[in-house]
Amino acid sequence: MTAQPMSIAARPHRPRRLTQFLARHEAWPILPFAVILAAFVFMAVAASGLAPLEPTKQSLLSRLRPPGFTSSAGFVYWLGTDELGRDLLSRIIFGARVSLAVAFLSVCASGVVGTALGLIAGYYRGWVEIAIMRAVDIMLSIPAILLAIITVAVLGPSFFNLIIVLGFTRWPRYTRVAYGQTLGVANLAFVTAAKLGGAGDALILARHILPNIIGPMIVVATLEFGLMVLFEAGLSFLGLGIQPPTPSWGAIMSVGRNYVGTAWWITVFPGLCLFLLVLSINLLGDYTRDRLDPRSIQR
Amino acid sequence: MVRFLVSRGAQSLISVFGVMTIVFVIMRLAGDPTLLLVPEGSTREEIAQLRHQLGFDRPIAVQYGAYLWDLFRFDLGTSFVQRVAVTDIVGARVPYTLKLAAGALFAAVIVGLPIGIITAIRRGTTIERILMPIVLIGQSMPTFWSGILLILLFAVTLDWLPSSGADRLSSLVMQAIALGALSMATFARIARTSIIDELSKEYVRAALAKGISRGRVVLVHVLRNAAIPVITVAALEIANLLAGAVIVETVFAWPGLGQLAVQSIQGRDFLVVQALVLLASVTYILLNLLADMLYSLVDPRIKLYRPKQ
Asked: ipTM value of the model?
């Protein structure tokens, strides 16, 4: 077992505790973005506790009020109100929940399906491999946003359909990576040993190959996560994603576009949140990639 | 070279065929495609009549065959909403989107490439630390937000540029920037990586050892070699720009293909939507093929066709 001492030698490079992680110089620039991401996740989870008002509560007397507007009852609308007098801050907080939920669930769906297909294609080879990888090439040649648009338009927009559509559109990304990684692992000695030991294919794939390719898959999933947040917002902006009155950043901005001259806050604040969230995810994704896949550091 | 072209061409054809099949399947995901095509408020008899007229009451295999045959003849059908041939509807919008994509590509190249080159040559300097965040921002800005911010700044506040419309060249400026931002980031990153790769090669050291100035080495030798990946990416970026046009055109009310896609979905004009997806995918496949061909022309070292071992 030559692999044993090697992996022990490699250990010290991996920080085990948070303090060790923080002691690493190159981790510092990424910290604020990890905090931002954590804040958004907290916002999404605790939305009902954090939001000052119901996100769908209308007040026609206080329509299109600027940030800091105080109602006659003494309530302060910190980020102003929208065209129906709803509290923008509350809508943005609940929008975080929609955004992260759609992105998380669609990444799970496409990640599981895509990885499984990649494992199968790389392990069994033959016609299965040809069929799956051809399908991947074809799916990737349809521009993702158009594929999502036409599918969601056919199925009808809803929370559930949105996840199905994003999962259906994005699996080839994972399959391509999982396939390449599986090809590299499937012929290694420990897989042969497991086969000779009588292990079934399912066991080999799940216990021996999957753990060895999970690193790159996590990297793909992280980068895809940011993209899915953008996709959800984009589709909702076009009216094909989350339907009103459920608050979604994209949908809020789509309405705000009509009031850009009179009520800039309706588009600026949700957009800022979207930008910060995607920026944080992208930076953390790049960082994870550099950590998990040292070969790509220069890229 | 000829064998390469033939095999790559055949692959592209298979991809086109695959795309057509996927679109055919998607259109039937919700069951009866007639329901997607009828104008809203049609009676049951009208729907039945249309179903028969379109042949959607035939077996699925026959429908599939007829669909492929129509596409083969470039017959994309007639829109039931507008009563005009789909090719005419789509064709009228093409010039606008091409104009927009060209503008965006220009903006992306003219900003992205210099950033890539500077950050590669001046690694670890203050300039790099200033420029790299610009790349990151370009990568993470949702186009519909940057578009609205540009409108807010240049149209609403400063009143320098029109916020929508397509009659003047000035109306192209903001949307080209909004759409080109993401490509700008891609160009900067690819150029940077590619130049850094080249700089570490032997010929650079040899040239420097001969006493040639660093600037000259970069200008004359490195840039030429580093251009190869950039060219490939450029072809694919054009395809990405066309897809990104969907959102940007909606923000700026630009009468191109992207706006047409959104309007057609809202107007339940699914034959037009179908045509747009097919058009975009075929463009993507052709650009991919073009990129491969350019690749072999620019870099004679690359033997693209390798017989199977």
From this structure: 0.83
